[in-house]
Amino acid sequence: MRVLITGGTSLLARATAELLLARGDDVVLLQRGEAALDVAQVRGDLREPAVVARAVQGCDAVVHAAAKVGIVGAWEDFRSINVDGTANVIAAAREAGLSRVVHVSTPSVSHAGHSLVGAQADPPVTGRTDAHYAESKAIGERLALGAASDALPIVAIRPHLVWGPGDTQLVGRIVERARSGRLALVGGGTALIDTTYIDNAASSLVAALDAAVPGAACIGRAYVIANGEPRPVRELIEGILRAAGVEASPREVPLRVATGIGTVVEKVWARLKPDEEPPLTRFLAEQLGTAHWFDPRPARDDLRWHPTVSIDEGLDRLAAWFAAAR
User: Fold this and answer.
1) Could you give the CA distance from residue 244 to residue 221 in angstroms, rounded to a whole number?
2) pTM of this structure
3) What's the CA gap between 244 and 115, in Å, rounded?
4) What is the mean pLDDT of the chain?
5) Which tens digit of pLDDT belongs to each residue from 278-311?
6) Is there a contact between 193 and 292 (Cβ–Cβ < 8 Å)?
7) 55 close to 27: Cβ distance less than 8 angstroms
8) 197 CB contacts (<8 Å, ≥6 apart)?
9) Cα separation of 63 and 74, whole Å?
């Protein structure tokens, strides 16, 4: 199978490409920059239909992993990349007669501010004005799954808090804030959350590719992917900091206080430092202070997927990576 992966410079895209190559598939990457992999690459902007149409030529399937992430930026940037870019991928895949599409989404598309305990992949929530990433990804997922059919099987995968060696998002931010003395635990870090080690996230995308055939139960559905090992936020953060060799004493902030501070900060920050990431927003406070773990059975039953690297083994690998970097 020849697979196009969009967003080829991301941690998840690289890991997925390496997994596909290891089993003998061909890979094409589409991204704006240069990816550090020796495979066919198309340089260009996902928002340009002609670029996407060129990238899918000769391919059998697409893993659409490209996205604008984070909490800083104009709504139009998030919308044009995460919604229009997705529309371009679906249109190009249909026009070129590809056999399947795996759309990489996020559990935050269904986040409504309350705890998620053993949750399913609930329908995306739209109408939020305080979380451009989650809102644009929710619209993009609805668009992708709405186009699914036996003629073009499409599956959405929502990896939850992906981390591992080389991660600049979760791991990088925790370590940077700890080193600068800005690390805080919302609600004392007691909320149970699940996360996904990078190898497990990549294998779930490959499993979805294999499962997305005409008549399959997964067509038009979304699946939350995680390790299936919910742990308190404090325990996970402490494990990451130990792996990085960083000592820290994060301050504790009650959830109600954190959401209030986040609401004020995001409004002030947008005016004073529009290009810098605020230390806290209401959405982020809710994410850090409420439980988030999910039912693993749908992915197991429909995609025949299960995680192979535990959190503890992942932390050991992370520690070895930091040690080698030092």
Assistant:
1) 37
2) 0.93
3) 29
4) 91
5) 766 776 777 777 888 899 999 999 999 999 999 9
6) yes
7) no
8) 162, 163, 164, 227, 307, 309, 310, 311, 313, 314
9) 26
Q: In the numeric block, which tokens belong to residue 209?
A: 């590719």
**How does strand 222-225 pair with strand 154-159?**
parallel
Distance CA 59, CA 318 (A): 34
Question: What are the pLDDT digits (tens) for 100-121?
Answer: 999 999 999 987 667 788 888 9
Is pLDDT above 80 for 268? no
CA of 258: how far to CAs of 5, 107, 127, 287, in Å? 38, 21, 23, 11
**Exactly one of 61, 124, 133, 154 is catalytic; which is it?**
133
Instruction: Please list the residues that pair with 30 across neighbouring strands.
Output: 6, 42
Cα distance between residue 286 and residue 189, in whole Å: 12
Is residue 133 flagged as an active site residue?
A: yes
CB 279 within 8 A of CB 181: no
Give which of 171, 140, 173, 138 is closest to 47, Cα–Cα.
Answer: 140
Q: What is the structure's pLDDT at 90? A: 98
Contacts 24+ apart (CB under 8 A), 142-146: 143/83, 143/86, 143/87, 143/90, 144/64, 144/86, 144/90, 144/101, 144/103, 144/105, 145/103, 145/220, 145/221, 145/222
* CATH class, range 2-321: alpha beta
Cα–Cα distance, 221 to 54 (Å, whole number): 28
User: CB within 8 A of 272, min separation 6: which ones?
Assistant: none
Q: Per-residue confidence at 151, pLDDT binned at 50, 70, 90?
A: very high
Q: Are 28 and 2 in contact (CB under 8 A)?
A: yes
d(C-alpha 17, C-alpha 40), whole Å: 11
